[in-house]
Amino acid sequence: MHSFGYRANALFTFAVTILGFMCALASFTDSFNSPSPSVQVQVLKVNWFQKQPNGNDEVSMTLNISADLQSLFTWNTKQVFVFLAAEYVTPKHVLNQISLWDAIIQEKENAKFTITTSNKYRFIDQGSNLRGKEFNLTLHWHVMPKTGKMLADKVVLPGYRLPAEYR
Ligand SMILES: *[C@@H]1O[C@H](CO)[C@@H](O)[C@H](O)[C@H]1NC(C)=O
Ligand SMILES: *[C@@H]1O[C@H](CO)[C@@H](O)[C@H](O)[C@H]1NC(C)=O
Fold first, then answer.
1. Which of 14, 142, 148, 161 lies 20 to 30 Å (CA to CA) from residue 63?
2. Rounded CA gap, 139 and 31, in Å?
3. Which atom of ligand 1 lies closest to the CA of 40?
């Protein structure tokens, strides 16, 4: 006859093995999900556009962000972190990336949304490079799973341009 301790231990080992198997299965089936998010962003308005006393350009915009990220959600998804970045080139840097807005989405039902907002974070260029500047708006996402690896991807929306003059 086995002692109680031995049986408890065996049961525990079995439970842990099953749990490990479930986790592996969860992240494995997850890798078959090929998401197809859709994103549209309009710059509704340039609220103001100035050169600061320190010489840096700053712009404030009103954005209309419309996205359907529901396909990122599987039963293994804990939450999705999204951020919208303005990306542009300057003589000094190949890539300038400025986060304008972000959100954490915890429910699939909330992953389809339209919001009108001014940029949550300041759009400042370390220099005065923004007049007439072409930029991309890129929606980046990080999918944080309940178990397994984090996935990151993005959608690039090219072809935006800042006004040629301060206002
Ligand atoms: C925001 O974008 C959505 C989808 O493109 C559109 O239906 C809606 O009318 C826009 N809202 C504004 C205020 O322009
Ligand atoms: C903006 O997007 C276009 C098209 O995807 C790409 O060729 C270009 O390199 C992007 N610019 C930046 C600064 O990422």
1. 142
2. 21
3. 5
Task: Mention the CATH class of domain 34-161.
Answer: mainly beta
* Residue boundaries of the structural domains of the chain: 1-32, 34-161
How much distance in Å is there from the Cα of 167 to the middle of ligand 1?
A: 25
Give me ligand 2 centre to Cα 18, in Å: 46
Which residue from 139, 141, 128, 151 is spatially nearest to 57, judged by alpha carbons?
Answer: 128
pTM over the 0.85 mark: no
Separation of CA 88 and ligand 1 centre (Å):
25
pLDDT in tens, the chain (167 residues): 566 667 777 777 777 777 777 777 666 666 666 788 999 999 999 999 999 999 999 999 999 999 999 999 999 999 999 999 999 999 999 999 999 999 999 999 999 999 999 999 999 999 999 999 999 999 999 999 999 999 999 999 999 999 999 99
